[in-house]
Each structure stands twice: as structure tokens, then as C-alpha cells.
Design goal:
The structure is a homodimer of 358-residue chains.
Chain A: H1 25-45, H2 49-58, H3 77-88, H4 97-118, E1 122-123, E2 126-127, H5 129-133, H6 135-154, H7 161-186, H8 195-220, H9 225-252, H10 255-258, H11 264-267, H12 273-279, H13 284-293, H14 299-311, H15 314-336, H16 340-355
Antiparallel strand pairs in A: 1-2
Helix pairs in contact in A: 1-3, 1-4, 1-16, 2-6, 3-4, 3-8, 3-16, 4-6, 4-7, 4-8, 7-8, 8-9, 9-15, 9-16, 12-14, 12-15, 13-14, 15-16
């Protein structure tokens, strides 16, 4: 990965001049995956055997019995944001492949731990690591991935590496606080949570790492403090838009595409953003939802809940609020990267995550 | 902490010329605590409120209800080793206070997580964090402490900081593998574990971080690769000696001094090193111990177990083997620091941890 003249694999060039059409998000994601996977896999392969096995399973590179698997490692949105941010600010994406891998390792450390805490049994269409290896091994594999992420940055001679490492570590603290706030909200009654608290938790839990990914890209491009902060803001706002859409999908998504059971978030009584908006709506449907949330349910009840969220305006609110966050994200992006053509890659990624239907 | 002319607080000067008497370990530990605590506390205070509370409780700076406590943060052996290693290799200990705090944060991250996994209910004479705040909050606080440790190093302008960060991250991976191996050994039958496996797990779980502390000190002193590795070896071997003595204390220690119930390791059927040595001894007492380990027990049985470990030679073996590891530690130390006077601080610390009786 030292040849900086041929970047076709790592960052496709725009094929058109029209904003939003110049880059294909799917192509950017695939390119990022091609670039970052070798670094990511090498880091995971460097783990001692027993920890390596858990991590290889988690990333989808091995089955539970240790035989090779095709890999099903998610959409790589965060590493793609790192590389796209470098490119948008005039840097060399290839210089930031290690940093992009560090961000993805950090994301996966939090997934391993969150699944243990939340007792989530399925991720990416497969049983979660703790269900296969037990809580302790999943915790230890997560701990090791956080360490690997920091090791990659500590060993990176790029002048931006220490600042990126400090940002990533600060982001982990925010992610932990977000997960903690999210769990605290989930433990309260349906009438005891406010939309403001839920949005703050979502920003810390989801927005922070997307913002950090973009900011690290800016750091690697040698951008100034203002541009770095604007890109952090861009990622944060896009991350909140992403979470809002994700919460809509958690209620109305197609199980064959999401890999989760239908109405999963309702069955788990999650206080997702559309639900909390509905509960706070002051509408009869909101009151009905609060009643349904307080007791056991069958599939008919779950469908009734979904209709109540929709009737109370929770679905529309989430989609409008996602659009609002997206608009703020674009404002931040324009502040850091005024040239729309250069901003195209980041724009395509932000639109991809908020337009997806599964 | 920018005054480098007055180091009396951070690193007491030798009061005599005789090896081992020139430094008082207790004084070195107290000095290290005085130096490192402000940095450590500032890092913990930087956490968001809900995570901060857990960390302040864990470090003994707050009671469970959030009221201030005197602090009972352990012996600070690891930060003392960092500072003593810097001094032994001719560096300025004050330059490594942040690194010493990072090592102590890392140690405490592993304590928080290990206590969750091992269901240990007491640490430093107090209920463990997970018993007070729940598993998830203890896991999240541990995650945040690992991140804080790396953040301290990433923000440290010292030229040794990136190498120290990389070593610390690699060490965390080894600590995780050690904890995993330790748990795997504990889940096996008494006749299914070998002393070699147990020693390897103890080296990874305990020796690695003591070695890393010393190596980081050497890095901060600007030492060459050979000296850094020798100091890592010194810490590792002293760490194994420490673990062997700790395991002896886990059976024969005085509960009023250890803060743990009498015979705690036997009651928990831990495969500590004296126990495994006894089980592997081929003696009638070893066979009797295997029988006792396989079933429920009252206090009389625990006393019988302790006598069986002793009768099978497990206690003597552990003490002799600790002495052997200590001798290897001193060999490594002499390789890096041939001048016994300069090595005095590290020597005093190593002797302290292996001579303690509680």
C-alpha cells in the first residue's frame, strides 16, 4: 500500500460532474472495503489464537467452528468516511488506510461489548459472538480490538497519527457514555424519557464515531482545526440522520433484508426515536402505544404498536428530523469543503446511509 | 509538574550506598503515588458524569453513594516501576508521569473487567464495581479507562510516547489472552491443567504489564532496544515472582490484611500455582487435594486442602520458584543497568512485591 499514484482501488474518481451523481456510494464503500480489509485482517490475525478466533468469527471471516467464511463485515461506512474525508480535503487516501482500519476496529469493539450488555443474539444475520463463545470471551475480544486500534495508530508514522489517536480515544469515552445513557433510558418507563435525552444518547452512541471518522480523515489530510471540527460536525449530524432512519427500519424494515425479526425494536420495547416521539406526541395513539409498551405482546400487538407509532406521527417525525439533521450535516460539509465536486464522496456516503431501506 | 530541578516528591534519592538498602520501597511507592495521583485523578475527572462516578468509586475516591472517600487505590506498583525505570536509565522521572498514569489506568481497566468475568465481589476491602453498579456499567467504565490511558499517551508530546502507546496496546492484547487462558484453565478439571500452562497464563496476565511498565520507563529514558527489552524481562520475571507469592497469600494470607476471606482461592477452587504444583506432584497429598477440589467444602475442608497443598510441596515449590524468577529478574536488570546503585529503586520495588506477607 505504498504506491500513491494508482488510487483506483482505494478511491474511485468521479464519473460525472453533477453533485451527488459523481460518486456512487456503493462503489466508494466497496473500494474502501478493498483498501482497508487487508490492514484490518492483518491486525486481527496478529491476535493470539484464542482471541483471534473470536474476532475472525465476529468479522465473518470464520464460522463458529473455525472454518473459513466468506466474510460479512458490514458496510464499512466508517472507514469509507475516513478515506473520503482525506480525499475531500486534498489528502492522499492511501496514507490513511491504517487510520481507517483503526476506526473500524473501534466500531467492532463497541459492537462486541454492546451485544453482551444488550443481550442481542443476532448481528449481520449471524449469532452474536457472546452467544457462541460466552460473555467473557466476547468482552476480552472487544478489549483486544480497542487495543489493536490504538496500536495501529501508535505505530503509524503519519504526522497526524497522534492527534487521530487522541480523538479516537476521546470518542471511545463518548461512545461508552452514549451506550450507558441508552441503557439507562431503556430501563425507565415509557413516560419517563424525553426526546432530548434520546437524541443526546443517539448522538453519543452513533454520531460520535461517524464524526470522529470524518475528523480523523481531515487530520490525515493536514486540515486546520476549523475544518476538522466542521467534518466532525458533518459526521455527527449524518450519524444522527442515520440513527433516525435505522430506528424507522427497526420498526418497519423487511426482516429478509435487515437480518432481524420483524418489529424487532417493538418486541424488545426499545425506546427508539420514533417510539419516543410518538410517546411524547400527546396524541391518543401515543397514549395507546404507552399502554401497549407496558405489557406482553403477540405479533398482532406488535403490528398495533407500529400503527400507533405511525398514527402518533413518530414515523413522519423521524423522517423529517433525519432530513433536518442531513441538512445540518451538509452545512458543516460546505463549511469545510466549499467545492461541491470535492465534497461529492462524503455527500454520497451521507445520502447512502440515510436513503437505505434496510 | 514542569519543575524538573526538584524531584524530591517524585523520586527519593538513595540514602545509603548499600544495594537494596539505599531505597526504601515504601517511600518509592508513596512518592510515585504523590506524583501520579494528580494526573490519574484529572484523567478520571475528565470522564462524563455517569462513567466518572463508577471510576471514582473503583479507585476509592468516592463511596458508592457518591460522597468523597479517602482513596484506597492499591500500591501503585506499576506507576512506581515506570518512574523507577526512567530513573535507573538516567532519564527524568517527571517526564514520564503521564505514562505512569496511563499504565495505572490500563491496570485498573483490566481489574474492572476481570472482576465482572470472575464474579469477584471484593477488591481492596470494598465491594467491586459490578456489584454496586451492575455488569454493564463496570464494563463501560473499564472500556473508558483503556481509552483514557491511550489518550494520555497520544496527547503526550514526549518523543517516547508513540512507542510507549504501541507497547501498552500490545500489552493489553497479552493481558486479555492471559485472562482468557486463566479462565479456560479454571474451567477444566484439577487433573487437566499443567504447571507450564499455568505459568504461561500468569506471565501473560500479570508479568506482561509489570514488564510493560518497566519497558515504558526505559523508552521514556531514551534507552536502546536491548535495554528496553531487558527491562521488560525484568518486570515480567518479577511479575511472575509476584504472582507466585500472591498465590501463596491467597491460601495462607491473613484475611485482615488481604481484605479477602481466609483460604479464598481454595474456596473458589482456583487453580493457583501452588495448587497446580501440588496436583502435579504425584504425592498422596496431591491426590487427596484433587479429591477435595472435586466436591463441596466447609472451613475444615479448606484447612485440609491448605495442608494438602503444603504436604504435596506446593507451598515450598511456589516460594522457591518465586526466588528463581526473582533471580532471573535481577539478571535482566543487571543487563540493562549494570550499576547497582542506579538499579536500586527497581530492585527495592521487585523485592517489595515478592517479600510482602499480605
Amino acid at each position: 500500500m505504498t504506491d500513491t499514484t494508482d488510487m483506483t482501488e482505494c478511491a474511485p474518481r468521479p464519473r460525472g460532474q453533477v453533485l451527488g451523481e459523481g460518486y456512487e456510494a456503493a462503489e466508494i464503500l466497496t473500494s474502501a472495503r478493498l483498501c482497508v480489509d487487508p490492514e484490518l485482517r492483518a491486525a486481527v490475525e496478529s491476535l493470539p489464537g484464542s482471541l483471534r478466533r473470536i474476532a475472525l468469527y465476529h468479522f465473518g471471516w470464520e464460522h463458529a467452528d473455525g472454518t473459513p467464511a466468506a466474510g460479512n463485515v458490514g458496510k464499512a461506512i466508517r472507514p469509507a468516511l475516513v478515506l473520503a474525508a482525506v480525499r475531500a480535503l486534498g489528502g492522499d487516501p492511501l496514507s490513511a488506510v491504517r487510520a481507517a482500519a483503526a476506526v473500524e476496529l473501534t466500531h467492532n469493539f463497541t459492537l462486541l461489548h454492546d451485544d453482551v450488555m444488550d443481550r442481542d443474539a443476532t448481528r449481520r444475520h449471524r449469532p452474536t459472538a457472546w452467544t457462541v463463545f460466552g460473555d467473557s470471551d466476547a468482552i476480552l475480544a472487544g478489549d483486544a480490538l480497542q487495543a489493536l486500534a490504538q496500536r495501529l495508530l501508535a505505530e503509524d508514522p503519519h504526522p497526524g497519527a497522534p492527534a487521530a489517536a487522541a480523538r479516537l480515544a476521546a470518542c471511545v469515552v463518548e461512545l461508552c457514555a452514549g451506550q450507558q445513557a441508552d441503557r439507562a433510558l431503556e430501563s425507565r418507563g415509557p413516560d419517563e424519557v424525553s426526546l432530548t435525552e434520546c437524541l443526546a444518547a443517539a448522538e453519543a452512541k452513533t454520531g460520535a464515531l461517524l464524526g470522529c471518522a470524518c475528523a480523523i480523515g481531515a487530520v490525515y489530510a493536514g486540515a486546520g482545526a476549523d475544518e476538522v471540527e466542521a467534518l466532525d460536525g458533518f459526521g455527527r449530524q449524518a450519524g444522527l440522520a442515520f440513527q433516525l432512519i435505522d430506528d424507522v427500519i427497526g420498526i418497519w424494515g423487511d426482516p429478509t433484508r435487515t437480518g432481524k425479526p420483524a418489529r424487532a425494536d417493538l418486541a424488545a420495547r426499545r425506546k427508539s426515536l420514533p417510539v419516543v416521539a410518538a410517546l411524547a406526541s400527546g396524541t391518543p395513539e401515543g397514549a395507546a402505544l404507552a399502554g401497549l409498551y407496558g405489557r406482553g405482546s403477540d405479533q398482532g400487538d406488535l403490528d398495533r404498536m407500529a400503527r400507533a407509532v405511525e398514527g402518533a406521527g413518530g414515523r413522519d417525525w423521524a423522517q423529517l428530523h433525519a432530513a433536518d439533521r442531513m441538512s445540518r450535516a451538509l452545512g458543516e460539509l460546505a463549511r469545510a469543503v466549499p467545492d461541491p465536486e470535492r465534497a461529492g464522496g462524503l455527500l454520497a456516503l451521507a445520502e447512502f446511509v440515510t436513503r437505505r431501506s434496510h
